[in-house]
C-alpha cells in the first residue's frame, strides 16, 4: 500500500472523516524537518467543534505510530516522520514483488472508456500536429488500462466531407501523375488538392463541382466511391508506417464516413425534440443561451457536416460501448466545436453528455515554419521520426561506437525522445521543436531517462545475481530515502494523470525518479561497498528504480533499452 494511504488509514481511526477526504487533505511538506506527510486539521474543526490545534494534539496522542519514527503536532498540523528503514523495506519489497504490474490497480474495472485519438485526414499529410493527439491519446489509453479501465481506442479518420469532392474532381481532371501516386501517394494527392484550390480561386464554379461529387459520394455512386476507397487505402498504408514506428494501435478505425448512414436518426431526434431550426436555408440547433454560435446540422444543400457526424458518432459510441467516459484527444482549436456538440446532446436530454470530454492540446512549431496542409508546406511525421532515429544514431556513433544493435537502439531512443517531448509539459502548452534539446542526454529528456535506466541495468549486470538476506534498515541516507519516496508515490501520479487527463504528470514523476536516482548514484558507492548488507540493499534499490522507470515509460508508450 502506498504510504500516503497508510497515513490516511491511521488518521481515519481517530476521526470521523471519510478516507478519500483524508487522503486528499494529506500534504507533502516543503521541508524535511516538517516530516514526510502532513495533515491539516482545519476541515475537522467544524464537525468536531474544536480548535484545529486541539484536534491535532488529540490525534497525535491517539494515533498508532507503528512504522513511524515520530508523529508530531505543530499548531493545526500533524507531521508524520517515517521510520526510514521500515518504509524503504515496504516500498522495495512491493515493487520487486509486483514487478511489471507495480503501480497498477483495478480502480477502473467494469468501466468502459472510449479514447479517440490520432484521427488524421485521408489524403492529407500525417503531420507533427497529429503526433500530439496520437501520443497523448496512446498514453491515456495505456495509463487508464493499467488502472483497470476497459479502453476502446478509436481512430476517427477524417475520411468524409466536401474535401473528397474536391479531390475526386481533381483526380478526374487527370491532374494526378499515376507513377507518383503509387510512390508517394500523400504528396501527390496533396499536390492535386492544392492545385484544386488554386484553380478554384480563379474559377469559383469548381467549388460547385466539388460539392456535386461529394453529394454523389454520399449517395453511394459507384465512381466516386471507388475513387474514395482508393485514396483511403493509399493513405492508410502511409499512416500505418507511422503507427508501426510509434507502436500505436487502435481498436477501431471507424472514421467520419462510418457515420454517414447513422446521422438521419439523430437529426430526427433533434427535430422531434423541437431543437431543429431553419437558418439561411441550413438546419441548426440554436445555442444563444450558452453564448455559442449554433451547431450546424445540415447545410443549405442538404449535405451533412462535421458536427453532425460527431453527434452520430457520440450516439453510436454510447450505444455500442456504454461508456463511462468518451474522450476526444483533439487540438485546442476545436474546443468550441466540442462544446457545441456536447451541449447539443445535453439539450436533447441525454445526461451522458457530461461524460463526453474534450482533451485539448496546444500547437507545435518547428523552427518558424507554420503547419498547414493547403500550402503544401508541412513536415511529415514519417520524415520527422526517421530524422530522430538518424540523429540519434549519429550521437551513439560518437558516444558509444562499439554498442551492439545500434540501429535498434537508435530507433527506441530517437522515437522515445520525440514522444517524451510531447508528453513532458502540460498538454495545452505549445511545443517548439528543438532537436538539440530533445536528443540531449542531459536535462529533462527522453534520452536522459532512458540513459538512467540503462545505467541502472548496467550496474545490475555487473553485480550478477543478488543473493542473501536484505537488511533494508541500512538504507537510511537522504538520497536513498528520497528515491524510495518517489517510487512509493508512483501510483498517485498515475491516478492524478487520469483525473486530469494529463499524461505529463506521469512523465514528470519519472523525470523526478531519474533525477533522484542520479543523485543517489553520484553520492554513494553501489558496487564498491564493504558492508555486504548495504551493497545488497542498494542494488535492490537500483533494481526497483529500473522497474518503476520501465513501468512508467511503458504506459507512456516509450520503450527502454538495456544498453546505450
Ligand atoms: N480529422 C480531424 C483533424 O485532423 C480531427 C478529428 C477530431 N475528432 C472528432 N471527433 N471530430 O483535424
From TrEMBL:
Please give the InterPro entries that the UniProt record associates with this protein: aa-tRNA-synth_I_CS (IPR001412), Arg-tRNA-ligase (IPR001278), Arg-tRNA-synth_N (IPR005148), Arg-tRNA-synth_N_sf (IPR036695), ArgRS_core (IPR035684), DALR_anticod-bd (IPR008909), Rossmann-like_a/b/a_fold (IPR014729), tRNAsynth_Ia_anticodon-bd (IPR009080)
DALR anticodon binding domain sequence ranges: 449-564
Arginyl tRNA synthetase N-terminal domain mapped to chain residues? 1-82
SUPFAM superfamilies in alphabetical order: Anticodon-binding domain of a subclass of class I aminoacyl-tRNA synthetases, Arginyl-tRNA synthetase (ArgRS), N-terminal 'additional' domain, Nucleotidylyl transferase
The catalysed reaction is: tRNA(Arg) + L-arginine + ATP = L-arginyl-tRNA(Arg) + AMP + diphosphate
Where can this protein be found?
A: Cytoplasm
Enzyme Commission number(s) from the entry: 6.1.1.19
Q: Where is this motif: 'HIGH' region?
A: 120-130
Q: Which UniProt keywords apply?
A: Aminoacyl-tRNA synthetase, ATP-binding, Cytoplasm, Ligase, Nucleotide-binding, Protein biosynthesis
This entry's Gene Ontology molecular function terms read: ligase activity
The record's similarity note reads: Belongs to the class-I aminoacyl-tRNA synthetase family.
How this chain assembles, per its entry, is: Monomer.
**Cross-referenced HAMAP family:** Arg_tRNA_synth (MF_00123)
Q: What is this protein called?
A: Arginine--tRNA ligase
What is the species of this protein? Answer: Clostridium omnivorum
